[in-house]
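pinging the channel bc i need a second pair of eyes. not urgent but kinda urgent?? the chain im working w is below, pasted from the shared doc
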Amino acid sequence: MAKIELFYDWKINPDSLGRSELPLRNNLMTLLQAVRSQGSISAAAKALDLSYRHVWGELKKWEAQLGQDLIVWDKGQPARLSIFGDKLLWTERQTQARLAPQIETIRADLERAMSLALDPNAHVLTLHASHDDALSGFRDHAAQQGLHLDLKFNGSLVALQDLNEGRCTIAGFHTLANVSPQSHIARVYKPLLKPGLHKLMGFAARQQGLITAPGNPFQLQSLADVVQRRARFANRAESTGTRVLLDHWLKAHSRQPLDIHGYESIELSHAAVAERVASGQADVGLGTQLAAFQRGLCFVPWVEERYYFVCLKSAVDDPAISKMQAALSSPSWMQALTQLQGYTPHAPGQVLSLRHELPWWQYKKPKI
């Protein structure tokens, strides 16, 4: 069976070159079409602005690879395609005609991508972040401002690890601010964030709480109720900020993971937790108010947390970071953010003091 590999060509000055009549070009098919239309190898070579030797050599090479004649090589007769050559050219043209709309879409997408790369006013920023519906909306808003976010959703801890290991330029995470320096939250985040190395940027405050079925049939008002009533729980992965919040509560209240019925049941996003509750596969899960609202579910507020962006200090003056700050602080985005259920702006786009925002981050003062 033949193996097909696709390639594309890129012309910086397309106005000076005519576009091929076919959405995809193939060197062999181009040679066969030229031989058919020109009636000889020499005429085909001239039409293609190639040497006779090159065209003849390419045709012979392909015949050896395919194990069949492509050209009828009768001496003294005009070159013509063999039966196999005709069949090969016909099937390729038929396939191209059938796939032309899809291929044209791909071509147009590539052209847009390359135009972006050549636009000095456009910027691309690699962002790994904890899943957040408002952030998805900001990505669309930023694109209208010429900032294109190469966004990958990971858990908060993975996003910060990716930043520290050079896999992204900026990371997004969420946490509680007012917790003890000895808390589980502080112990988890402190090794990943270093004053003097990282710069914090504001984004939003958001409500997180219990997502339940409409009417809250178990009458759950707290995580203690979830434990006591053995409600089926939809949990988040270990690397997520929401899982850190849950484990923080467990440790603070001397509880064990197995006290929560369904602790081992993992979902990948707030939306997935809400979907699981909506489908009746779980009674409750932790998530944002917006995720519950979008699916018509009940929401019981638990905590207000802050969602931050963080980058290395060395990157804070990069043009793409500056573009992001401007987009975050724009009136149009702040208005859009306040319209999302459970969200309020929190110093959007401002560079913040890590120690001030997260007072549990404290250096031990060296003894003098």
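so The first helix runs from residue 27 to 38. and Confidence is low (pLDDT under 50) at residues 15-19. — does that match what u expected or am i reading it wrong
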